[in-house]
Design brief:
heterodimer; A: about 190 residues; mainly alpha; 9 helices; B: about 350 residues; alpha+beta; six-stranded mixed sheet; 11 strands; about 20% strand
Chain lengths: ~190, ~350
């Protein structure tokens, strides 16, 4: 459903794409204001992010991607916020992926493929629901793991012995699998 | 394998996965994983748990919440595959997502909350085409900016190829040539824009010109900083290669668009990689200790060959070697084995985790 000020928005887009300074200034003002709240978090990347936003907005408007489902201002806010938030998240540390050790010698082509666990973490909604049901201690311990702390460091930070810590972490992992199975059992068939 | 060994190993898998085990424990875990399929499955479950505990709300869901949740409740979808109920549950314990949502609220209020936007100062930003009969002002040419930006991005992205330490000097020289070409191209377009603008009467407002020039200067400065950064990293790689000595083993080096290479401590011949989020291909570089025709193959862990490509090189021993661009779409998902073959001889291997 088109927004009531669609005519004004279309006019602004047309004038903007034609390079009219007033229109360009108006749009750029919106973008700058939308991005300002990310300035502190983005730090020295802020200007690059803002320029990315400008280029992306120009491209989207040139391609006619604004359909009038919302006001132009809201649409531009979404583009800006999405771009800035993506950049914030991309700036976090790389993910580490460990692989099974390679066995020596040639593989037997007739050997069955190793059984892969069901990729339940591809279901984001399920994943978040499971995470929300986990005990706070489990979330805290695994957050430390993800941050890259050794079990020695975690032991020092939590005051829990190394052996007990390893057991608790393992218990949290298995508990997550139980919670997942409980939620899946509650799901309607076909979901 | 005794039960004790499995228990001992399984307890340490999370720290194996986050690479913080000490060397002795790491070697014991690696040896056990090589021999125990059950523990390899435990490792896969450990990785799933890491993905679980690292989960956050997708950006689409946060945007919807910042706009008032789109009227959603319960199982209604916010976007990004997340329901309102799951999002609310997550926000109850995740300070990071709450902070991001607060940023979005603040950002939205700054734009949508105000009644009528004032006309701001024209910045270095605007499309190319001058409107007929418009005021006699020089406009900043977004086409110039886009062209220069795309060329500069290509230049600094190409800098990723600098991670081939044996050809560092050549790479830097190539990078400098391309940077000069990008600068010249930008200047040529700028000259064309000037010619267009000179047809109109009157002088351009000083603030428009200075802001346009400042924008272009900022772009070039950013690219120069990136080049300096890449040069420094390349010099470091070169120093390390020289320190390691002239002898090279054949192996897979790392790729610029993938998560860091793992297993480097076991030698380049056992590299393990994964593509960075959103990438649909990986670029693999090789170091070679021989010349002659080679074949790069991709296999499932069960040994079924799923892709192969000839890798011809006429380079001598010690050369940086060729590279291969491997698209991921045509490959099975999961862990794949990468092998570099010289005839029947395997001279390098690694693994690739394909998320597709």
């Amino acid at each position: 459903m088109a927004v009531q000020n669609g005519g004004d928005d279309d006019s602004l887009i047309g004038r903007f794409l034609a390079g009219e300074p007033a229109a360009v200034g108006e749009v750029d003002g919106w973008l700058a204001r939308a991005a300002t709240s990310f300035r502190r978090r983005l730090g020295e990347q802020f200007e690059d992010a803002l320029q990315d936003v400008r280029l992306e907005v120009t491209r989207l408007l040139q391609e006619g991607r604004f359909r009038g489902d919302s006001s132009l201002k809201t649409y531009l806010w979404r583009v800006t916020a999405h771009t800035c938030l993506d950049r914030l998240r991309a700036g976090s540390r790389w993910s580490f992926v460990e692989y099974d050790g390679e066995t020596a010698g040639a593989a037997d082509p007739a050997a069955p493929l190793p059984r892969q666990p069901r990729p339940w973490n591809a279901d984001r909604d399920l994943l978040l629901r499971v995470l929300a049901r986990m005990e706070e201690e489990c979330r805290r311990l695994w957050s430390m793991l993800i941050e890259g702390l050794s079990y020695r460091e975690m032991s020092q930070e939590t005051g829990v012995s190394e052996g007990a810590l390893r057991v608790r972490v393992l218990r949290c992992r298995r508990r997550a699998q139980e919670v997942r199975d409980e939620l899946l059992a509650l799901r309607p068939l076909g979901v | 394998m005794t039960k004790t060994s499995c228990d001992w190993t399984v307890e340490r898998l999370p720290w194996w996965a986050n690479e913080t085990l000490e060397e002795g424990e790491r070697e014991r875990v690696a040896a056990h994983l090589d021999e125990c399929a059950a523990c390899r499955e435990e490792l896969a479950a450990t990785r799933q748990a890491m993905a679980l505990y690292a989960a956050h709300l997708p950006v689409e869901a946060l945007l919807a919440l910042a706009e008032g949740g789109a009227g959603a409740a319960g199982d209604a979808q916010l976007g990004g595959g997340v329901s309102r109920a799951a999002a609310d549950a997550h926000l109850g314990h995740c300070a990071a997502c709450r902070e991001e949502l607060a940023l979005l609220h603040e950002s939205r209020a700054a734009v949508v909350g105000e009644a009528g936007a004032a006309v701001g100062t024209v910045t270095a930003f605007g499309p190319r085409r001058p409107a007929a009969g418009s005021d006699s002002r020089r406009r900043f040419d977004l086409g110039r900016l886009a062209l220069a930006a795309s060329l500069l991005v290509a230049v600094v992205t190409t800098g990723g190829w600098l991670f081939s330490h044996q050809a560092a000097d050549e790479r830097i020289a190539a990078l400098e040539r391309r940077f000069a070409e990008a600068t010249a191209a930008g200047e040529a377009v700028d000259a064309a824009a000037d010619a267009d603008a000179s047809e109109t009467a009157g002088d351009a407002p000083a603030e428009i010109l200075s802001e346009a020039e400042a924008g272009a200067a900022a772009d070039l400065a950013a690219a120069e900083r990136r080049i300096a950064e890449l040069e420094a990293r390349n010099a470091d790689l070169q120093a390390r290669a020289e320190e390691a000595g002239p002898e090279l083993r054949s192996g897979l080096t790392y790729t610029w668009n993938a998560v860091r290479v793992r297993g480097a401590e076991r030698g380049p011949e056992q590299a393990a990689i994964a593509p960075a989020a959103g990438e649909d291909f990986v670029v693999l570089h090789f170091t070679l200790d021989r010349q002659g025709p080679l074949v790069f193959v991709v296999e499932t862990m069960g040994g079924r060959r799923v892709a192969e490509v000839p890798v011809a090189t006429s380079a001598g021993a010690g050369d940086a070697g060729p590279s291969v661009s491997l698209p991921l779409d045509g490959l099975p998902g999961g862990t794949l084995r990468l092998r570099l073959l010289a005839g029947d001889e395997e001279i390098a291997r690694g693994t690739l985790q394909n998320p597709r």
